[in-house]
Amino acid sequence: MLVSYKWLKKLVDLENITPDELADKMSRSGIEVEDVVIPEEGLKKIVVGDVKECVPHPDSDHLSITQVDVGEEELYQIVCGAPNIQAGKKVIVALPNSRITGNVKIKKGKMRGEVSLGMICSLEELGYSNSVVPKEYADGIYFLPEEAIPGELVFSYLEMDDAIIELSITPNRADALSLRGVAHEVAAIYDRKTNFPTKELVEATDDSINDYVSVSVADEKEVPTYRMRVIKDVTIQESPMWLQTLLMNEGIRPINNVVDVTNYVLLLFGQPQHAFDYDKLGSKEIKVRRATNEEKLVTLDEVERELSTENLVITNGSTPIALAGVMGGFDSEITETTTTVALETALFDPTLTRRTARNFGLASESSKRFERGINTATVEEASNFAAQMIAELSGGIVVKGEAISSDYQKEDVIVSITLNKINRSLGTDLSLEEVSTIFNSLGFEHTKENETFVVSIPPRRWDISIEADLVEEVARIYGYDNLPSTLPKGSSVAGKLSKNQRIIRQIRRSLEGKGLNEAISYMLMTPELATKFVLDKQDVVALDLPMSEERSTARQSLVPGLLKNVAYNQARKQSRVAFYEVGNIFESFEGQSLPTETNHLAMAVSGVWNAKTWDSPAKNVDFYTLKGIVENLFNILGLEDVLFVPSKAYAEMHPGRTAQVKVGETVIGFIGQVHPQFAKEMEIQETYVCEFDLEAICDLTKEEPTYKEVGKYPSIKRDIALLSDAAISSQEIVDVIQDKGGKHLVDIHLFDVFQGEKLGHNKKSLAYSLTFRNDEATLVDEDVTSVVEKISAALAEELNIEVR
């Protein structure tokens, strides 16, 4: 949930409270704040520009040469490639020596021979995600309002000087999925008053809702209330800029002045709504019911969905026109030709909404709120507010009356609790007056009978129903850091680490010594990610009642979680990312009642490995960076006969830069580059990963290392240069050398590889250094020479390799 500090400030008094102070206080009071972002930070010298002239570039079919007023005496000539650039528009201009998103510096330059003094920017170049940019500006630049003054900084026009507070909302606090809910929370923390906007509903007097539509529901348990208002004579157009910028800062794409109002009310009240084009409904009757098997509906994303009896649908009396609480129908969407709007406001069964959203993979801001709960006390207010706001922004008129299936009213929940219960649970010594003040700040009406509180819980806090909930509320507002603390009591017992524990600690020390940081990822993820990077996919382990779609399925690999961490860090401009994780994966095998948990080790590295210095250039991560880390780890653990075998079996891995890792004949994992297409989907740069069965590694690791006396006799080295087919792997060559090298061959080292036109098509040159040593006597050249000749002959015969 993204919260605009400026918007929140209008709903509750935040005088003398900075965004960072507010974030800290909220985190310590029960609602975790992930981040506080000020969009304008990092941007510099980006101003309003007035395009005075725009002509095609003489040497380009897609560039334009513009003359732009940026508030200085002379116009700036700027070459622009946006297809929608035109004279007479106010635009966003990055002046020479300015900074745009990504800390990119804009310089004076030339484009196709024409001087360009800066750049005309799109919203994406200011840091806005493509998912929130209005579609009409997605492939071009954004136009500012006519009243924008050339030369002024653009940040205030786009509300980029606002602070955006990102909240992590747990399922039990769904009341905070609205600005009003957050305002109530802040008011309780600081003991201040809320001030919510209202609108006086103005209805037409010449017609009635009965002339337009009637509504009914098949089951009031599944749809406690369904309301519909009609707004006629509307004009569909862009929303005013204040509404567009507010929605973009809240992470929602502006569409038009009707749809944007429903999203505004969604954020303000936490009440999802849907707007239909009334003239496309095909009926004056709206009925909410279960779908029938094989019934079909084309949703707003233009995908035809086959429905079932598990789905709750809105119909025009016969045909489905929307998935209740999830997504509207394509045939009745609001378009530029819409003149009459039918506005839906309702309450839908959380279980049915979640089931439908999950079955179709259509989790949305709307379904998320219906699944977790809606403030039933503001349904009518939200309906009236949205209808009047649509009328104001579209020039329409609200038809008199509202079609209602049933006027649902939920009574306050009454919970009793004693002062002794509160103090005993928290270890405090609070007085009646102190607890009463806390309940008042929360907006909970209450009475006192001796030392017992009888508390009336308003519908906006549907998460409170028992004594323990009230204890938690008192603790939150009183302050967790104010609660008394005591040291735990108990006795200690002697113990020691198991073999696996010692090995895992050794692995951690080794990897951290190599510069990797330990990551701890969620073991629950989406069903799609749960089976990525898995060779033998098993049945997934899914929760019956997950908190969210993103945390519904147990992982079968550690890599997806690590890649999410990589994406998070790279999005925050970290140039070097190196993680490892030790954790369990979960697989469900046929015939087992419980899933099998297996301990795995995974790593992910990306970006710059060695930074640029005065005597050496920067070095980026590649396959051999990670392979070296793995080989060093296996050497420390004493694993022998480790092989890296090329593999194309992993769909999410680069087919030419991936290998299975074997110890002898046992496959223990894989290593390689994440497939570029999958990396693009995860929004990460070139990244290399590996994953191993940690239990298999522990089984293969010796309990104690084997020590061997250092040889007393000198070794002999011989270099051998080979010309082979490019398709022959180094491992095949090493296998032949080891086979023919005899017992005195102690090391094989590849020190040079070359490919080029001079060698011929599909040829490569390799050079190996061979080390021979006899620990019982001194080797003579003749012995080594004869062995090298055997090796050369075997390479020529078995692999058709030329020894040069």
Automatic annotation (TrEMBL):
This is Phenylalanine--tRNA ligase beta subunit. Residues 40-155 form the TRNA-binding domain. Its cofactor is Mg(2+). Gene3D superfamilies: 3.30.56.10, Bira Bifunctional Protein, Domain 2 (3.30.930.10), Ferrodoxin-fold anticodon-binding domain (3.30.70.380), Nucleic acid-binding proteins (2.40.50.140), Phenylalanyl-trna Synthetase, Chain B, domain 3 (3.50.40.10). Residues 711-804 form the FDX-ACB domain. The lineage of its organism: Bacteria, Bacillati, Bacillota, Bacilli, Lactobacillales. Pfam families: B3_4, B5, FDX-ACB, tRNA_bind, tRNA_synthFbeta. Binds 2 magnesium ions per tetramer.
